[in-house]
Specification:
Blueprint lengths: L3 E4 L18 H4 L4 H8 L1 H5 L19 H10 L7 E4 L16 E6 L5 H8 L22 E9 L6 H13 L3 E6 L6 H18 L8 E2 L4 H17 L9 E6 L6
């Protein structure tokens, strides 16, 4: 479990940490040729090009922010002397975590679906933040929890554990988003098939799921550029800066739900 909060003092990146990737900052991504830039920042838009003529495309373009909005979101995820990002604590159980004073968001998913990798990418411009993942499934739902991100493997699609997570989120009435990971490990045909299945599932079986998916690649270079849309959605939804609260990472488990 990872808890983050805004801090008053700036912390230096620990010695020995890897330097920032050249494409970690959106300013560097914007220097790319336009077609490549759009492909890495808006992967769902590019995937929609493979749809058959006349196919429904609305759910591929619900959240299409301007680049200037992405830059503003990136600023919240960038540490500096006037805006530090602080690691607070790790806890095996919710009751062991500090009492929340700000809104919370939660990233959940099966083991090895890419939760910690996604968080590292989101905080690529805050290298002093250490990412740790809890192996303990949900035991309770915090009143401060505002949104949950359910990570689904783009190669295999929705699995039984994902369905259990959806059932829990629907039962508790928590707004949530599905993030499709490892999209560069699937062929275009397989990825499009899984994306369409997930979209149809969301439309027919859910009430609280945001209808547009967010796609994230597995490779480090691409992953850093794919998260810019997600970072804006994270801080801009309902005009609340959720980033300035707590972030939780949890594995989905069958037997303890």
């Amino acid at each position: 479990m990872l808890l983050l909060r805004a801090a008053r003092s700036w912390a230096r990146a620990p010695q020995g940490r890897s330097p920032l990737h050249p494409l970690a900052a959106l300013s560097q991504v914007l220097k790319l040729e336009r077609s490549r830039r759009d492909g890495v920042v808006f992967p769902l838009r590019r995937l929609a090009r493979n749809l058959v003529p006349g196919a429904e495309e609305a759910t591929f373009a619900l959240f299409q922010p301007e680049l200037s909005a992405l830059q503003r979101a990136e600023a919240l995820f960038t540490s500096g002397r006037g805006h530090a990002i602080d690691y607070v604590s790790s806890a095996e159980r919710m009751e062991h975590a500090p009492l929340p004073a700000l809104p919370e968001v939660c990233f959940i998913g099966r083991s090895n679906v890419g939760k910690s990798s996604l968080i590292r990418a989101l905080f690529a411009l805050a290298p002093e933040v250490e990412v740790r993942v809890s192996k303990t499934p949900f035991a309770s739902i915090s009143d401060s929890l505002k949104r949950t991100f359910l990570l689904v493997d783009g190669v295999v699609g929705i699995q039984s554990t994902d369905l259990i997570a959806v059932e829990m989120l629907e039962e508790f009435g928590i707004p949530y988003v599905m993030v499709v990971t490892k999209i560069d490990r699937a062929s275009k045909g397989l990825l499009l098939k899984n994306v369409l299945k997930i979209q149809e599932f969301g439309k027919e079986k859910t009430q609280g799921c945001f209808p547009q998916l967010f796609l994230v690649r597995f490779s480090v270079i691409a992953r850093l550029t794919c998260v810019h849309q997600l970072s804006l959605f994270l801080v801009d939804t309902e005009k609340e800066t959720y980033f300035m609260g707590s972030v939780f990472l949890l594995d989905v488990g069958l037997k303890q739900w």
